[in-house]
Backbone:
């Protein structure tokens, strides 16, 4: 049996799997609020206490995807006050084999298993599309993460990245204004400062404070609750707020430009896979053209980007299955 996890700053999903006929099959899973626990081990103890009856044998291997860089089997988790060690998890839970990976590596590991229903095509690619080429995962959610499947000569390797913490690179006058606005509020303006849930709120605040669109009157009341990324996206999809619509259009344009930067950086012509919690929820905006405007604006290298397709990952369990797939190789 295998235990696997997809752990983020907001939620942690844990699953119990069995190896059957060369594949891993999910037996049971559960989801927990990450911030309600002081460690990954505490979540695992609760999960195993709840689902002990589902075990048909000993757990042979475990893999957990977590946000942040894994160094020498240890990770200081981004957006959570946790430090996790492979050896300590194995010793406490009595798992013989444990592997910690970046959470986007887990998603990347699931890409070869995706069914067509698991994906929404944003862009099919133009000309000679290299379906066997390297692929990247870009996942905006609580933060933003990246990973790469590097493919060459019939073999592949999963590579983690912390590219979401690289500097935000504006591409036009309004984005330059956004950068300056955020420089007045943040010590470091990274990609994650604009391309995640809190990043959506940052864009919204910039457009509001620079009077590009009026804020809804209800939000101006002294006792009004802070506007969240979820509220902004919902208003934009419903067409009830011009400010929210401008926010999501700007978010999508910046995301498109960022994705094509990664395509060129890694020559990942096999495809861009948009994971994380945000893309499936804002698919109509990703399909309305603003994303592609940002994506294709690449000058001399436009042809290479034009040949690279883009997909939204709809399967919320992708990273969990990817962790299980990695555990099955231990």
Residues:
């Amino acid at each position: 049996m295998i235990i696997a996890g997809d752990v983020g700053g907001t939620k942690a999903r844990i699953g119990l799997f069995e190896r059957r006929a060369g594949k891993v099959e999910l037996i049971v899973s559960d989801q927990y609020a990450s911030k309600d626990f002081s460690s990954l081990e505490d979540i695992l103890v609760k999960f195993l206490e709840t689902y002990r009856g589902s075990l048909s044998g000993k757990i042979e291997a475990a893999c957990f995807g977590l946000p942040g860089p894994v160094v020498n089997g240890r990770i200081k988790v981004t957006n959570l006050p946790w430090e996790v060690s492979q050896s300590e998890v194995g010793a406490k839970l009595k798992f013989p084999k444990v592997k910690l990976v970046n959470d986007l590596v887990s998603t990347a590991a699931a890409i070869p298993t995706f069914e067509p229903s698991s994906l929404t095509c944003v862009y099919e690619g133009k000309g000679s599309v290299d379906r066997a080429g390297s692929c990247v995962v870009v996942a905006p959610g609580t933060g933003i993460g990246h990973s790469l499947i590097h493919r060459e000569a019939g073999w592949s390797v999963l590579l983690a990245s912390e590219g979401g913490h690289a500097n935000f690179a504006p591409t036009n006058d309004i984005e330059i204004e956004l950068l300056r606005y955020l420089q007045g509020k943040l010590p470091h303006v990274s990609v994650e400062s604009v391309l995640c849930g809190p990043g959506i709120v940052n864009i919204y605040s910039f457009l509001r404070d620079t009077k590009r669109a009026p804020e809804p009157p209800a939000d101006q009341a002294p006792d009004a609750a802070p506007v969240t990324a979820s509220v902004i996206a919902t208003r934009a999809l419903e067409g009830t707020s011009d400010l929210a619509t401008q926010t999501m259009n700007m978010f999508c344009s910046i995301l498109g430009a960022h994705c094509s930067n990664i395509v060129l950086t890694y020559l990942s012509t096999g495809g861009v896979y948009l994971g994380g919690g945000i893309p499936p929820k804002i698919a109509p905006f990703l399909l309305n053209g603003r994303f592609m405007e940002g994506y294709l604006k690449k000058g001399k290298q436009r042809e290479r980007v034009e040949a690279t397709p883009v997909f939204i990952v709809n399967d919320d369990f992708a990273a969990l299955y990817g962790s299980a797939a990695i555990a099955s190789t231990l």
